[in-house]
Predict the structure of DUF1145 domain-containing protein.
Amino acid sequence: MKALILLAKAAIGFVWLILLINIFHPFPGVAAMALYIMTGFLFMMHGLQMLIFIGAFGDKITMTRWEKWSILIFGIFALLDIRRKHMM
């Protein structure tokens, strides 16, 4: 399970890399606009996940600053990793 979570985090990291490259060096045509929309959507969804998780479980488990921000970056895969670490 740990290897799959790591693989999924690498895939999401690659997606973020492409989205950030598009911000600083836009792709040609309508691809840039589609990637802008995807960037906003991904940021909002992961931000919402982070706020909900910290609001619901922030006082029940202790998380490092990196764990909190990793939810914003990796989404559900960070949540699975945090759960795996705190359940052991």
Remarks:
- The CA atoms of residues 9 and 33 lie 25 Å apart.
